[in-house]
TrEMBL record:
Gene3D superfamilies: HAD superfamily/HAD-like (3.40.50.1000), Putative phosphatase, domain 2 (1.10.150.240). This is Phosphoglycolate phosphatase. It catalyses: 2-phosphoglycolate + H2O = glycolate + phosphate. It is an enzyme of class 3 (hydrolase). Pfam families: HAD_2 (PF13419). GO terms for molecular function: metal ion binding; phosphoglycolate phosphatase activity. Mg(2+) binds at D19, D21, D182. Specifically catalyzes the dephosphorylation of 2-phosphoglycolate. Is involved in the dissimilation of the intracellular 2-phosphoglycolate formed during the DNA repair of 3'-phosphoglycolate ends, a major class of DNA lesions induced by oxidative stress. GO terms for cellular component: cytosol. It comes from Halopseudomonas oceani. Belongs to the HAD-like hydrolase superfamily. CbbY/CbbZ/Gph/YieH family. Pathway: Organic acid metabolism; glycolate biosynthesis; glycolate from 2-phosphoglycolate: step 1/1. One of its GO terms (biological process) is glycolate biosynthetic process. Its cofactor is Mg(2+).
Length: 226
């Protein structure tokens, strides 16, 4: 495995793009609570944190469909059922982020990048309406020049569109940028965009080790990159 400076030929990246859930913030306790409120309102059994952890990473709609299916595979779930459950989930998730926590090492790494005046972006599959309030709640607002949510563009990760958009805004070439994420979608999006990718080992990757996606670098904590 390469070190961060080795990845950039002894320099630092000119732009760093981050995933949110499972990378910066452990948001699964609040996501699971909202899923369970939704399931209770539908007269169904709770799913619980351990199941929901494996279902997070492809946005709210897919999370809700997986909860309805009780499984990662959700192709048999119908549209009207999805819409009804999604509305309940979005209402249950709004406003309460009290169980979500910032992972160790995150703040130190963001501070280091900020003091080096490296522009930062957030690219998440989470619905955009939740992103500013969650960041503010955890005192992570003020770091990111660009915020891209799961519904900001017509497609979400693993599609590389958001990475291309941010790099264009920043005027930075793919080889000078870095993506930091926790799941297969992040690694696939970064690779499709030609962006070096660091994966964190502590996040959510549908119950599979993220090492199997072959990120350029794998770390147990972001402060290992300082
Ligand atoms: O909300 C999700 O499904 C995952 O969001 P993420 O892209 O920040 O990991
Ligand atoms: Mg994630």
């Amino acid at each position: 495995m390469l070190s961060l400076r080795e990845l950039f030929g002894g320099a630092l990246p000119a732009l760093v793009m981050f995933d949110l859930d499972g990378t910066l913030i452990d948001s699964v306790p609040d996501l699971a609570a909202a899923v369970d409120v939704m399931l209770a309102q539908l007269g169904r059994e709770a799913a619980g944190v351990e199941q929901v952890r494996h279902w997070v990473g492809n946005g709210a709609r897919v999370l809700v469909r997986r909860a309805l299916a009780g499984d990662i595979e959700h192709s048999h779930i119908g549209e009207p059922e999805t819409e009804q459950a999604l509305a309940l989930f979005l209402e249950a998730y709004a406003g309460d982020h009290s169980r979500s926590t910032v992972y160790p090492g995150v703040r130190a790494f963001l501070d280091r990048l900020q003091s080096a005046q490296i522009p930062l972006a957030l690219i998440t599959n989470k619905p955009s309406r939740f992103v500013p309030e969650l960041l503010a709640d955890k005192q992570l607002d003020g770091y990111f020049r660009w915020l891209v949510g799961g519904d900001t563009l017509p497609v979400q990760k693993p599609d590389p569109a958001a990475l291309h958009w941010v790099m264009q805004q920043a005027g930075v070439e793919a080889g000078q940028a870095l993506f930091v994420g926790d799941s297969r979608s992040d690694v696939l999006a970064a690779k499709a965009a030609g962006v070096p990718v660091v994966a964190v080992s502590y996040g959510y990757n549908h119950g599979r080790p993220i090492a199997s996606e072959n990120p350029d670098l794998l770390v147990d904590s972001l402060d290992a990159l300082i």
